[in-house]
Structure formats: structure tokens, C-alpha cells
Amino acid sequence: MKKEHWPYTLIWIVSIAVIIVFVIVQSGCRSVPVKSDEYIPPVMRSRVLNPNIEKYIIWKIEQDRLKRADGQRVK
Q1: Transmembrane stretches, by residue range (predicted)?
Q2: If you write DSSP's letter for every residue of 6-32 in order, what string do you get?
């Protein structure tokens, strides 16, 4: 009798673990401190999941600066 029930128990354990991990990841994204007068875009909040996002933002700002200097888009 017990051998028939263990797959269902395993499914329950795995599903609960997935939900717990999802909740931890979601709360971790929002745990970046935000000052009341400053808005942090969602891209910066995901810094925990993607550490290279700061390099991308610096590159993007540089591209925008070059675009404004030349008057046209830089490829």
C-alpha cells in the first residue's frame, strides 16, 4: 500500500519547494532599499539575478551620450 503513495508525496514535496523558491526570489528582487524621493527602475531591482546589468546600463548611457553628440544613432 505504501509503495503506491510515494510518487504523490514526492510531487507534493517538489511543488512546495518550487513555491518556496519562487517566493524567496520575488521578495529578494524587492528587497533593494528605495529612498522615498528616488525611483529605482525594475531593471536595477533585478541586480541580484543579473550582475552584468550595471555594465549594460553604463554602456547604454555611453551610447545615448554618443548619439546626442553625433545627432544620429550609433550602431
Answers
A1: 6-25
A2: HHHHHHHHHHHHHHHHHHHHHHHHTTS
